[in-house]
Fold this protein.
Amino acid sequence: MYKLTSELLTENRDGLLAITLNRPQKANALTLEMTRGLAEVLRNARKEAAVRGVLISGAGERVFSGGVDVRQTSTMPAEEFRQARSTSFFAVLIELVDFEKPVVAAVNGVASGGGFMIAALADAIVASEAALFALPEIDLGTPALAGLAILDPLVGGALAYDLVQSGRHMSAMEGERHGLIRMVVPRADVQAQAENLARDLMAKKPRAFAAGKAWIRKPMRAALEAAESAMVAYRTMGGE
């Protein structure tokens, strides 16, 4: 297992790149260093013939990821740091949208905010029966525009709007009913089932898989780019 940092682990398992968000004591919340590292890992994996698919997991038993760590401090000026944090997180989202190879998310527990967005950008989610999904940004005074951009084409505007504007938790079973979750399994089976599914997708013809994925994600990519620009404008106007 290669440690990009102690909080972001990667391991090539016979062509399947396993990426682990390894900060369980902090709900696997994403620091600036983690998002920069994750974007780099995905960027490199796109070009590596030895990588045919990706599996993303969160360390521990309770949380996939609590999203971007809004409590992280920095020696940068506050606004510069907020912009750097946002830019690096959007870079992760764009890398996932553009990633031609299969990606599966193994969601063992709570996937909140940016953690939910990362999981939703996988080709498939395998979730624990106890998993919960939420976009609570509105309760922090921030619009989850990236969440809308991702979820609208996946589950439709009504559910996307509900989740973003209410900040409520969605159960894995509800997500499965809406087609967002591919499989709900006991927590002990999440990793094995997610890896099996990833290998099933890796067995497809790569060029055909990539072409279909690129086509379906064209509107999502454009929406994410617009969301990033809108968030810059929102902060410029004094938003959180």
